[in-house]
Amino acid sequence: MNRPMITALTTIGIAQSLKIPINKWKTGKWDTGILFETGGMPSSHSAGVTALATYIALERGIPSVDFALSTVFGLIVMYDAQGIRRQTGELTIKVNDMDEELQRLTGMHDPAKSENQSVKIRERLGHMPEEVLEGALLGIVTGTLGHLLTGK
């Protein structure tokens, strides 16, 4: 059984599940659909890779090649989650706003005729830095717990 991988995948599931009550607290609405979406608090990407690196650090040691690989891989994933993917999400918001404004200006904006309106592009793709940090902290906790539960 590959305990580090199980720990990382479980952590991703925990992070994704935490998004539902956090979203309820922020918006006042239950939205179970966000369980399968990217973006939001905490970053499941950051949580998973940090859990993996933490488990490996405790199992094999910080000087190991395994830890070095998992850490570099994790840093790239976290940078991408809060950098490129976040910028893509912000650009998508602007495209959706431009589409709504164009419909309004051309007189096509009629809330009663929603079938004539174009479909909005999904906006929540990446993470704010604090969401990445929260995911990393969750990963440290679950990676440590996963290692302690192995009983070694």
From TrEMBL:
<protein>
    <recommendedName>
        <fullName>Divergent PAP2 family protein</fullName>
    </recommendedName>
</protein>
<dbReference type="Pfam" id="PF02681">
    <property type="entry name" value="DUF212"/>
</dbReference>
<dbReference type="InterPro" id="IPR003832">
    <property type="entry name" value="DUF212"/>
</dbReference>
